[in-house]
Amino acid sequence: MPETTLGDLAIEVRSKNAGPFWITMELFMRDADGYRIAADETFLHEGVVAELYRVDPASVQIFRIPSLNVVKISYPRPVSQGSLRDRDTHAGQHHVPLAQLVVPQPGVR
What we know:
The chain is about 20% helix and about 25% strand. The protein is built from 4 helices and 4 strands.
């Protein structure tokens, strides 16, 4: 059976600046079923995001918005926006690892 990713269940997964020191990613899920998966705290939590983006789990903020089927995630930028080591000034590419996160199959843990 082929693997399903968060990106497969979403209308859009995007990342952007949230000021010069933070990045925000948004998962716009297609429906309530996809939202339930993305919002499941046993699947997507601060530790998972910290591992994907090599940040401190205590610095990760996750906002679940069921009325919009949206999960929003923010974490500090590894370098400030526009600094010498900044390779993505608009933070437009940071969403890719999140979109590729494999969703667990029902009944499999």
